[in-house]
Known about the structure:
The complex is a heterodimer.
Chain A: E1 2-11, E2 14-24, E3 29-33, H1 40-47, E4 55-60, E5 63-64, H2 69-75, E6 76-79, H3 92-102, H4 107-121, H5 136-148, E7 154-158, H6 166-181, E8 185-190, H7 193-199, E9 202-207, E10 210-216, H8 217-224, H9 229-239
Parallel strand pairs in A: 3-8, 3-9, 6-7, 7-8
Antiparallel strand pairs in A: 1-2, 1-4, 4-5, 9-10
Helix pairs in contact in A: 3-4, 3-5
Chain B: H1 2-18, H2 21-55, E1 57-62, H3 66-72, E2 77-79, H4 85-90, E3 96-99, H5 104-109, E4 117-120, H6 125-152, H7 173-182, H8 184-211, H9 213-218, H10 224-256, H11 271-298, H12 302-323, H13 341-352, H14 357-383
Parallel strand pairs in B: 1-2, 1-3
Antiparallel strand pairs in B: 3-4
Helix pairs in contact in B: 1-10, 2-6, 2-10, 7-13, 8-10, 8-11, 8-12, 8-13, 10-11, 11-12, 11-13, 11-14, 13-14
Protein name (chain A): ATP-binding cassette domain-containing protein
Family (chain A): Belongs to the ABC transporter superfamily.
Keywords (chain A): ATP-binding, Nucleotide-binding, Transport
Amino acid sequence: MIEVQQVTKQFGAFTALEDVSFRVEAGEVYGLLGENGAGKTTMMRMMATILRPTAGNIEVAGFSVIKEPNEVRRRIGILFGGDVGLYSRLTARENIAYFGSMYGMGRTAIEHRIKRLSQMLEMDSFLDRRVGPFSRGMKQKVAIARTLVHDPQVILLDEPTTGLDVTAANMFRQMIGTLQAEGKTILFSSHNMGEIDKLCRRIALIHKGRLQYAGTLQKLREQYGMQDLDDLFMTVVEGSGR
Amino acid sequence: MRGTIIWTVFQKEMRDLFRDTKTWVGTFVIPLVIVPFVFFLMGSSYSSLEEEARAHVPLYVTGTSGLVAQLEAIPGVKFEQPADPEQALIGGKLRAIVTIPDGFDERLKAGGTANLRVEYDSSNQKSVYARDVIEEKVAAYSKEIVAKRLRAAGLSEKATQPIHAVYEQVASEDKSSGGMLAGVIPLMLVVSLASGGIAVANDLISGERERGTLESLMSAPIAANQLLTAKLMTVMVMSCMSAAASLVSLTLILRFGPFGGEELGLSALSPATALVLLLSILLQAAFFAGLELMLSTMAKSIKEGQTYMSGVMFLAMVPSYMLMPLHPVDIPEHYYLLPVFSGVSLIKEVFYGMVDPMHALVGLGTSLLYVALVVALSARFFRREGAVVKH
Lengths: 242, 391
């Protein structure tokens, strides 16, 4: 479903990603693991066609991010890390509906979808309130609903649990389970090893722009003879020599 | 679909803006309430100051003359005898000191010239008023003496005025009032068109980028140009609203402010000049909106955007101030080819009631070209890779 083919991204003289390749299968929750600044967000931005690879290509659902960016955009929903990116003077419903209309959805379709997402994310009590004063957890729910409003096949989640409390992060992980059951393909980036361990069977580990490992967690454990993912991560990173 | 996206983004931007208290205060409350209220306060304070200055005019007069009785006859004048007149004048207890030297009237009767010393405080408006009324009385007293001297010489007062000149103005009343306002209105309109969009343009790109909404929006299947068009429309609407609010504000100030009863003279516009005015305003709004959005795209942060935007104000103010004292016939022809200058010149012609069709054609045509240029540039910057990503 997502095919990353020898992707390099440079910003002037700085190489953010170098010759990275991995593949995410349809219906899979795939982990993109790396420290802050490893290049995870740059990779996500290229998948979302916000940035263009300097070399190589990425195909999402069979469409190239370089040649068919609009087809790619139609099929993905992305939740960027850090700021949740909501319009604080609009209500939760207005925020979600606005993004729905950007995907060409009709009013009735948007309303039905909002109703469904509101139930799934338990947002009914604050759906018609302006998002400005919301807590981080409430905002994150609205941002997720906004990401999913057009029912995308591929969901890109860039450090989605950053800043969430334990309850909200747990609710988030349950939601990922629900989405996986619906057959969605999910690429989940994080620097939290425990989280990746709970959600993903396969991962790509990036360190300073280079791919260090791509495959199942089980094979990684067998290869290094370690169970603890934090220890594994440190061993792989230190062994990279970068 | 393309039009629907533009309209949806535009509607959202307007809804978002009108829920912001800062927008209401900046666009409507300040120009429509605060500015006229400040002028009203200035006017009423000026009136009460004048009233007070007329009601009580304490003077210190030394010496004797027929002039003393005339000064005493001025309404509100009261002669005071302070211990230290100079200090009383500085302290505001006296409005003026009049020193009449010995033999003042005798010198005048003998046909000579006599000195009169009037001390006043130019920093005190009430003292300046006292100086004015004393000056009037001295002039009247002088006139009486001149008349007596002329009669004694067997001449009439007309002998001192051999020429009776009559000055008649050829401009119509509308044109004349337009002339007074034509200096101020282009300045006010162009500056408010530029300033009205600054905060909005900065927020719509730099602000959205900082909050992360622009990146999310651009991951949807919409074209950058659709988004930019909607944002351009939003900034233009806000600029035009700011200009309209400034015009209403000026009308209120002219009608109720300290200048008393001036009219804006919009009724004198013909359909053709009204069209030129409307097109000039719209093109200036589009030019500033395009420029502001371009600067907002170039800026790495809201703060950097604010710094860049000061250049826009400079661009609006320089032509407006340069053209303020000029009559339309004195405006150099090449000004109609320059950005902003052409708009200010045409607005000026409209309010003078003398729009030259060739100037209108050239001015509007070049303005349109400049709008196309800034919009193309801002689209180019906006489509640049990474333009929507937070730095």
